[in-house]
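Hey, I'm writing a tutorial for new members on how sequence and structure tokens pair up, and I'd like a real worked example in the thread rather than a made-up one. If someone can provide the structure for the chain below, I'll link this post from the tutorial.
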Amino acid sequence: MNELRELYQEVILDHSRRPRNFRPMEGATHQADGHNPLCGDRATIYLRVEDGVVADASFQGAGCSISTASASMMTDAVRGLPIAEAMRLFERFHDLVTADPSRAAAAAPELGKLAVFQGVHEFPVRVKCASLAWHTMKAALEGGSRASTE
């Protein structure tokens, strides 16, 4: 189990140090700003939706390694998904990081690489870090311009 935890930590550190899709997006059709007032993490999520599908996703912001890694992996995960599936992915990810261990373990296999965040539910303060980008993406898809973890 320690080897798996170390692998998960490496994936999170890799995405934190070299975030994917970290850029503003010209031509974004959806955009929202997110803020975690507890620790100060901030994220702007940019989405370009074409024919009901997330054609592109990117982000900018500043935050801890978990927040940055989560935004990086989220932008990869939602690209190419229909809006309804992106929203279902939000729900599954939210279950992973907030649920009791048995529900989190059940959600993990469906999430692929995103399962690296499974251990976050053990640290309630970090749940908000991991879910900031996701709440912000959801707000953007719902037509909102702001999201908060409060």
